[in-house]
Amino acid sequence: MYAEVGRVDAVVSTAGQYAFRPLLELTDDDFALGLTNKLMGQVNLVRFGVDVVADGGSFTLTSGMASRRPMIGSAVISMVNAGIEGFIRSAALEVPRGIRVNAVAPGWVRETLLAMMMDPSPGLPAAEVAQAYVALVEGQLSGQVMDLYAEP
Prior knowledge:
By secondary structure, the chain is an alpha/beta fold. It has five helices and four strands. It has a four-stranded parallel beta sheet, sandwiched between helices.
């Protein structure tokens, strides 16, 4: 991807697959999916993208509320999200040329809940979630997680 795109000012990732089921039903393949797809997929965007991101540019990854607010069935995604958050804090100390590395930890997105025919009231509108990504891309923070989940 980077070879085709060339120099960029910012990279934003909201991608990643993972299994969501009770702990005792999870297989090694379920853990491997979350680790190789969501965690290492985002880690590798940074590792392989440092040379193409402009000086002072940014990487903004996506973790999620499950890193701090686990629920039944979230063992894989809780672990992966926490891994992403640890990675951005460490990577921010080492990336060169003023490049920034951050993450957004969104809670539920209202439109996703609606699409899943669930109660949308705990969700934030997608436009509000998008603003968090914009703020990190355009701001000066590095090594930070923007947590969009408000504690009740």
